[in-house]
Design a protein that fits this description.
Elements: H1 2-17, H2 40-43, E1 48-51, E2 62-64, H3 77-81, H4 108-113, H5 116-125, E3 145-149, H6 155-167, E4 171-173, E5 182-185, H7 191-198, E6 208-211, H8 213-221, H9 239-244, H10 249-266, H11 291-295, H12 314-326, H13 334-343, H14 349-358, H15 391-406, H16 410-424, H17 433-438, H18 444-456, H19 459-465, H20 469-478, H21 485-493, H22 499-505, H23 510-517, H24 519-523, E7 526-527, H25 528-543, E8 550-553, H26 555-558, E9 563-564, E10 567-572, H27 578-595, E11 599-605, E12 613-618, E13 627-633, H28 639-647, H29 650-662, E14 666-668, E15 671-674, E16 689-692, H30 696-703
Parallel strand pairs: 3-4, 3-5, 5-6, 10-13
Antiparallel strand pairs: 1-2, 7-9, 8-10, 11-12, 12-13, 14-15, 15-16
Bound molecules: 2'-deoxycytidine-5'-triphosphate and manganese (II) ion.
It binds 3 DNA strands through helix 16, helix 18, helix 21, helix 29 and strand 14.
Biased composition (Polar residues): 41-58, 246-258, 273-286
Catalytic activity: DNA(n) + a 2'-deoxyribonucleoside 5'-triphosphate = DNA(n+1) + diphosphate
Domain BRCT: 136-232
Length: 715
DNA sequence: TGTCGGAGGAC
DNA sequence: GTCCTCC
DNA sequence: GACA
């Protein structure tokens, strides 16, 4: 019944969005409350059914009902306390389940259940009709009933707030009545305004009065936060209550500490910190480092505005901390502003103007060709990626990224990832919007977020996000081999919270079972020295069968990493075809490796005749930790493309592949192709003709990418 | 305002 | 074809 | 969310 209820909400939203003036028709008194299927007839007779848009589908009825009087004892109180149980208790009084008359919406269910990506499209096409309901586990407002009091000027943004709140499970009560759990007041309104609007003398103590920031924060934290905080206080309301609450003094003091720490951090010039990839590994001398690699340890200089790098004296630090204390710590509007950019075409002139002021073209340089902006065009050696001065900023941005991952907002997530990667590469702390904006993959919005993080440290967030248990569980589940975002989310929605629980109750694929059985093994990094031993072991075994087969370890190992997540073998043999290799490796070497007890299990192997991958697990003799092992079988003529693919990193690959496609070509693990014919709907019709596959460097050349040794491909 | 890597297996 | 997961 |  949950779903149907949401559909009706959706309908209501549709109505909302179609109000041209934004003026509320207050005479159309209506509220929405769910109506249990079994109770439809029992509960409706007292009300006159006027019209229902989809009576056969919807469990809601459109009713004009006399509005119940507000009483001090709200029957929805229970919902506030136990918001997990939404089931309207039969005893609960407000049984009138009322909804306004709504137009019929086509494809409601499709829109509701569509993936974020898809529903976004729908939203665009139909101007915000889509209500992107969150998955069950994300319905944080379930059982809460919000009454919104708008600031007269801002009816449009308010609609977005309402929409958002509903997406996260809130009921929107349009008419003041019994059962309201929260009154949400737009900023600039005070308690007196509230009383005036509601025409009441005082607000019942069980109804929470909060400002418009409250739902935004709850959504951000994915948790119904304590509303008794100065942050959410409505001016003139219940000062006594607020005083009880520990004020944010902890926050401000910590902030100032942080600021001071920053100053200290800045004192010594940025040193080249330890790093995971591209290090010289002097002890073994195994990684050869070319000349320009060493030079790269010079930190990239960023022209900083004079105000960007405050002096290190204590006074200034304290002054800054003081300023910080009074800053509104605004995460504010985060959830909304992005939408308003899409949905409110012309509204919001004020904030738009403000943005415009800063809007400048990202690249001041004019003659720079478009392809210069691809990651793969520049050297990325990973210097200074650990112990990064921007670690704290990255940490916060990562939390944002995690949030959007849960939200299944794929592209925003990758945008955050790229921004984080860009930040990680900086040798200096990025402290201002301008500095941040100058970086690739950091635009206006992220730049201002970064500055905000630097100044406020965003500590508020940690208080509540740690309380979101799903975030951790999601990461836990997604760490299982064979489990992605969808499966993990599904399990969480089913209520699973731990791996033992999965073993007991969830249906698991074969691979997932193995993934669980060796969860820790597969998460353990492989020291470079062990990777070498794998290399040796496999070579030796194979040489007894065919000593012309060549093995190269790709992946992070080839990029010079000190440790790797797995061992990526690139397997080839002079003049061999894929068929030859399959015969040797799949039919003989791999069975032999199994016989010797090295290989433990196959996880994914391409059954196709020309399949070129084998994925499994192995453990060296005398060791117990299972390692993930990849064999990529590569025909002699494709070794160049395969090396590019299997050397990565992932960002580099995506970048260079995108570059290829922009040049009308296609780069995959088999080669560089041209004349790729794409159909009207962008589907590939022909795979094109092979340009080059054999020579790694030639492929770079053909694409106009300066040669990058593996160590410099850590984008 | 449309893109954002490409492939393979399961359905 | 779509969805999901992987490299 | 960035970018062309
Ligand atoms: N999204 C991805 C992930 C990986 N790869 C390519 C580049 C990688 O280098 C190679 C091997 O994948 P791994 O997952 O093994 O990644 P790495 O070897 O780079 O890192 P790790 O140390 O985790 O193994 O596959 C890719 O093209 N796209
Ligand atoms: Mn790897």
């Amino acid at each position: 019944m949950e779903k149907e209820t949401k559909e009706a909400f959706f309908d209501e939203l549709y109505q909302l969005d179609n109000e041209d003036s934004g003026e509320e028709d207050q005479s159309n008194a209506s509220v929405i409350l769910p109506l249990p299927r079994s109770d439809v007839s029992a509960r409706t007779p007292s009300n006159q059914i006027v019209h229902s848009s989809r009576p056969e589908q919807s469990l809601l009825r459109t009713v004009s009902a006399p509005l119940p009087q507000l009483s001090a004892s709200s029957p929805c109180q229970a919902n506030v306390v136990e918001r997990s149980s939404f089931s309207p208790t039969p005893s609960s009084k407000p049984s009138e389940q009322v909804i306004i008359d709504t137009p019929i919406m086509a494809k409601t269910t499709a829109s509701v259940t569509a993936r974020k990506e898809a529903s976004k499209t729908i939203g665009k096409r139909k101007r915000g009709q889509s209500l992107e309901l969150k998955s069950e586990s994300q319905q944080i407002f379930n059982g809460l009933a919000f009454y919104f009091i708008p600031n007269n000027d801002t009816s449009i943004p308010r609609k977005l707030r309402i929409r958002k709140a509903m997406e996260w499970g809130a009921l929107w009560i349009r008419e003041w009545r019994d059962g309201v759990t929260h009154v949400i007041v737009d900023k600039d309104l005070c308690y007196d305004d509230v009383l005036k609007t509601l025409k009441i003398k005082s607000l019942p103590s069980d109804i929470k009065l909060v400002n418009d920031r409250y739902p935004a924060d709850c959504i951000m934290y994915r948790f119904v936060v304590n509303e008794i905080q100065p942050l959410y206080r409505v001016a003139g309301h219940d000062d006594a209550v607020m005083v009880q609450q520990p004020p944010t003094s902890a926050l401000s003091s910590e902030t100032s500490l942080q600021l001071r720490a920053e100053k200290q951090e800045r004192l010594p010039p940025p040193q080249t910190p330890s790093r995971t990839e591209g290090s010289e590994l002097t002890s073994s001398g195994r990684v050869s480092v070319d000349a320009d690699f060493a030079e790269s340890s010079t930190p990239q200089r960023i022209t900083m505005p004079s105000h960007a790098c405050p002096q290190n004296d204590l006074d200034k630090a304290i002054a800054e901390a003081q300023v910080t204390k009074d800053l509104p710590l605004d995460m504010d509007e985060d959830e909304y502003s992005e939408e308003s950019a899409i949905l409110d075409d012309s509204e919001n002139e004020h904030s738009k103007e403000e943005k415009q002021r800063k809007t400048k073209s990202k690249k001041g340089s004019f003659s720079k060709s478009w392809q210069e902006n691809f990651s793969c065009m520049s050297k990325h050696d990973g210097v200074g990626t650990s112990a990064n001065p921007n670690a704290r900023t990255i940490e916060i941005l990562q939390q944002m990224a995690d949030y959007y991952e849960r939200d299944q907002d794929h592209w925003r997530l990758t945008a955050y990832r790229r921004a984080i990667a860009a930040l990680r590469k900086q040798a200096r702390k990025i402290t201002t919007e301008e500095q941040a904006f100058a970086l690739p993959f950091i635009g206006q919005r992220l730049a201002s977020k970064i500055e905000e993080i630097v100044w406020t440290n965003k500590l508020r967030r940690l208080d509540n996000t740690s309380l979101d248990p799903n975030a951790e569980v999601l990461q836990l589940f997604m760490g299982i081999y064979g489990v992605g975002l969808k499966q993990a989310t599904k399990w969480i929605d089913q209520g699973h919270k731990s791996i033992p629980e999965l073993l007991e109750k969830a249906h698991l694929s074969k691979n997932q079972k193995i993934g669980i059985a060796h969860y820790e093994d597969f998460k353990t990094r492989i020291p470079r020295a062990e990777a070498d031993r794998h290399d040796q072991y496999v070579r030796e075994t194979c040489s007894k069968i065919d000593n012309t087969v060549q093995f190269t370890i790709g992946g992070s190992y080839r990029r010079g990493a000190a440790d790797s997540g797995d061992v990526d073998f690139i397997v080839t043999k002079p003049d061999a075809t894929i068929k030859n290799l399959r015969t040797i490796i799949l039919d003989r070497v791999i069975p032999k490796l199994f016989d010797k007890g090295y290989l433990k299990i196959g996880l994914a192997t391409t059954d196709k005749v020309d399949g070129s991958k084998w994925h499994g697990a192995a453990a060296l003799p005398g060791t117990t930790i299972w390692r993930r092992i990849d064999f990529l079988l590569v025909p002699w003529d494709e070794i160049g493309a395969a090396l590019i693919y299997f050397t990565g990193n992932d960002i580099f690959n995506r970048s260079i592949r995108l570059l290829a496609s922009k040049k009308g070509m296609r780069l995959n693990q088999r080669g560089l192709w041209k004349d790729v014919v794409r159909g009207c709907n962008r589907e590939r019709i022909t795979q094109g003709t092979l340009v080059e596959g054999k020579d790694e460097k030639k492929i770079f050349e053909l694409l106009g990418v300066p040669w990058r040794p593996p160590q410099h491909r850590m984008c």
